[in-house]
Write a structure and sequence with these properties.
This protein is of the alpha/beta class. The chain has 10 helices and 10 strands.
């Protein structure tokens, strides 16, 4: 089965390409504005992974005309995929629940977004599931990577520069290591390529809740083993009401479906941090 990744580049595409390369499976990267150029023959035996609006950083919401144009183009493409039998996987995230107080949210919970990005995610999910009923939506959480301006990179930069971080210690989230998400997407594609008929909505986050402050504590502990940091942990970190929290803040979700239907277990985000921090420290030291 061919694998086609719809992405504009960045950390997610590189993480996915790296994981699929390790598995010996080639992946074709295609930007959204080039979808009409895809070879129908290649599309007919493909699993298409659409990264949608998911990003490792906080991206601004699209304007309504931009969103309508994108959704119309995706609807046409999803219909093409359905006509030739291609499998579709859309990455989304838990911001579709950011208008709901109770959590964690199950896969069958009805979305109620209040943020602009959460509403965009919901609308794109709806278009996919209506246009291609056999498609799959995979919602995730705030992503942690070794590239881009996400929370992990900002923490390490502050520690190296001797800056204090004032952080929230009240609101928990489930940070998700990008290599872990790539592992899950790869496993899902492997099973779809073997004929698995799973469809609908699934959730995946790395296991382990954490406030921004707790996460930064762990990052400091690992980084201090690799770098000669100019300030102590007590100087580097402070709890502050209204301090920096998770960006984006993604409500917590239950992840039962991927285990029951695909046999995929959640792994702790902490297990990914040593290798990720080492890679970032080596890059920062250049």
């Amino acid at each position: 089965m061919n694998v086609i990744l719809i992405s504009e580049g960045g950390a997610i595409s590189q993480g996915m390409l790296s994981q699929f390369s390790l598995r010996g499976r080639q992946m074709q990267l295609v930007s959204a504005d080039r979808l009409s150029e895809l070879d129908p023959a290649r599309l007919g035996d493909a699993c298409v992974v659409d990264t949608g609006f998911v990003s490792g950083i906080t991206a601004p919401a699209m304007s309504e005309p931009e969103l309508v144009s994108l959704i119309e183009a995706r609807q046409k493409f999803y219909a093409r995929c359905g006509e030739v039998g291609a499998r579709l996987v859309l990455l989304s995230d838990g911001r579709v629940f950011d208008g709901m107080a109770d959590s964690p949210h199950a896969e069958n919970s009805v979305p109620m977004p209040v943020s602009d990005v959460g509403e965009q995610l919901r609308r794109l999910e709806d278009v996919l599931l209506v246009t291609a009923p056999g498609a799959l939506v995979l919602r995730t959480s705030a992503l942690i990577s070794t590239q881009g301006d996400d929370f992990l990179g900002r923490c390490l930069a502050a520690f190296r520069e001797g800056r204090n971080l004032s952080l929230d210690h009240a609101v928990s989230a489930c940070p998700t290591a990008l290599p872990d998400l790539a592992r899950v997407v790869s496993a899902i594609v492997d099973q779809l390529s073997c004929g698995a008929s799973c469809a609908g909505i699934y959730h995946y986050t790395s296991s382990g809740q954490s406030t921004a402050y707790e996460f930064a504590e762990v990052v400091y502990a690992f980084a201090s083993q690799l770098l000669d940091l100019p300030i102590s942990e007590e100087q580097a970190l402070a709890v502050c009401d209204g301090g920096e929290g998770w960006h984006p803040l993604v409500p917590m979700m239950r992840c039962d479906g991927v285990l029951f239907d695909f046999g995929i277990k959640q792994l702790p985000w902490r297990s990914y941090l040593p290798k990720m921090i080492k890679a970032l420290c080596e890059e920062l030291a250049k």
